[in-house]
Amino acid sequence: MNLRNTAAGMMLIAALVAIGAWHAHCPTALSRALPQLCLGFDSTSDGGLDGNAQSEHPRSLVYCRRVCWSPDGRKLLSLTRGECGLDGPLVVHDLDDRPLCMSIDMHGEPVARAVLAPDGRRVLVATDEADRGRLWWLGLESDERKLLLEAPTRTGFTAIAISSQGNLSAAATSDGLIFLCDAASHSPAVLVAGVKSRISDLRFSNDGRRLVSAGQDGWLCVWDLQSGEVLQRWKGHDQLATAAAFLSGDRLISAGLDDTVRIWEISTGREIWRGEFGLFGVNALAVSADGKTAAWGGHQSKVVVWDLENARKKFDVQVPTSIVWDVQFSPDAKSLAVAGSCGTIRVYDAQFGADVAELEVGQQTL
After folding, report:
1. Which residue has the higher pLDDT, 50 or 226?
2. Separation of CA 83 from chain center
C-alpha cells in the first residue's frame, strides 16, 4: 500500500511538514515529542500506522539530526536533539579510538545547525538564542569563538553550508533570507530570489561558484555567486523540498517530502529523471565527492544507495532507525554515515552496504 494514496497517509505527511516548520522555532519541544512520534510508526508493516504496536527499534532519548565527516574521514561531528546526549548537542567522535569523543561547549545556546570546515579545525555553528539566529566560527584546536552574523529579525537559521574551498559560508533564515559570508572579510551579502519562504537546505557547487537552495514550498533556486544573480528557479517538488545537490555538468539532484528524488537540467529547469522508493518522504540526500554515487533516506528503515554513472540502484541498507535524518559520504566515498532516531550514528561500507561501525549519541531504553 502506498500511504500517499490513503487519507491517513496524507494526514501524516501534512503533520510531518507542519512539524518541520514548527521545529525551526521549537526544537526543545520537538525533541521531546519526536521519539514518541517515531514509535507510533510501524516500519515493518506495509506502510501502515499502528498506535498500539510495539516498535522493533529501541526507544531513544536522543536522536541525531546531522552528521559531518572530517576531511581525513577519521572523525564525525554529530548534532543531536533530545533530553540528554553524551556530553551535549555537538560532539566530535573519533573513529580510530572509539568511544573517544570531544564535546563542543556552546555555553547554553540552543544549536540549530552545524558543519565542519574543510580544514577540519573549525565548526560553523548556527544557534537560536531568544528566537534570534546567530552564526559562529568555533575552533576545535583553539579557543576561537567568532560571531559572524546575527539574524536581522527574530528568526532562526534553518540551513547553513561551507564551500569546499572554505572561503565562503552561507546561512538561510526561517523567513527565506540567505546570507553569503566571505571568510576573509566576514562581510555578509544577502541573496534574494523572489518569494521568500523557509529554506530547508543550502549547498555549494564543487567549484564554489554556485549555490542551490531547497525550500519549504517545493521550489529550487540556483545562484551564480560571482554576479549574485539567480541562474534558475523552478517548482521542483509537490511538497517541501528537503535537500538538493549539484551533479556533474548542468545537473542537479533534489529530494522532497513528496517521496521523490529527481534529477534536473539546471539551465532549463527540466526534469531528467524521477524515482520513488517507498520512503514515505525523503529527508536526507548525499552525493559522494567523486560524483559517482548518491544516497538518500526518509521515514522508513532503509537508505537507498544509487549509482549515478549507470543510473541504477546499487543496494538498500536496512538501518535500525525509524526515521533517517541525515546521510553523508566520507571524503574518499568508501563509507556512508547514517544519522537517525535510534540514538546512534551507523557507518556502512558505501560499496557493498556492510555495517562497519556504530557510534553512540544518546541513551536508549527498551
Report:
1. 226
2. 21
